[in-house]
Amino acid sequence: MSAVLMRSMITASMRERDAQVHDGLADCYLDLDIRGVSMLEFDTPRAVAGRGYDSAMPVLEQWLEGVESPSEVAGSPDRVNRSPMST
Fold it and tell me: Cβ contacts of residue 41 below 8 Å, gap of 6+?
């Protein structure tokens, strides 16, 4: 029963996300390529974060190139940390 409830919640969440992306409610949407990572995979956070970073940065850089005034963007080029997991 819990698996059915979890899948229902995920499906509803994905449907809502798709509607918001379709309606243009986000200036930039990141669809990170983290296939093969379990939703409850907590034992390798640095590896997962690195994969997310590698997937996100090209999209963010391309998006920032198209922004008329990067200072209006919360993640403007001056504020984008190009070194993942620097701590």
Answer: 48
Sign, Cα dihedral of 9, 3, 32, 72: positive
Query: 1-55, pLDDT tens digit by residue?
Result: 777 777 788 788 878 878 887 787 778 888 888 888 887 888 999 999 999 999 9
Provide the whole-model pTM.
0.57
Domain extent for 51: 31-87
Number of structural domains, the chain? 2
Q: Does residue 50 share a domain with residue 80?
A: yes
* Residues 39 and 20 occupy one common structural domain: no
